[in-house]
Give the backbone structure.
Amino acid sequence: MKYALPIFAVAAALSLAACDRPAVITVPAAPVAAPVAAPVAVPGPAGPTGATGATGSSGGTGATGDTGATGNTGNTGYTGATGATGATGKTGDGTTIIVMPPASAPAN
């Protein structure tokens, strides 16, 4: 409320001052004669599309290179000497021993 009265007073002064503005009148200048311009050429519509040109010829194929010479086949190697036969082992005595694992106790 303290500022309401000063705000309304300023708003009233501004609104009344806006109504009193005198209108500015501008006097038009005398017309100046425009120089006569040269006629401007306007392009016409586009003509029809021309025919398609011929396809160019293909280039020639290059020459094929020479095939290289085949290498010589190598010589066959020598067969090695046969090894000696080993000595025959001793014949067994004929006794066979069988070891049995101990019997396990029944589970309780």
About this structure: Helices lie at 4-19. The radius of gyration is 62 Å.
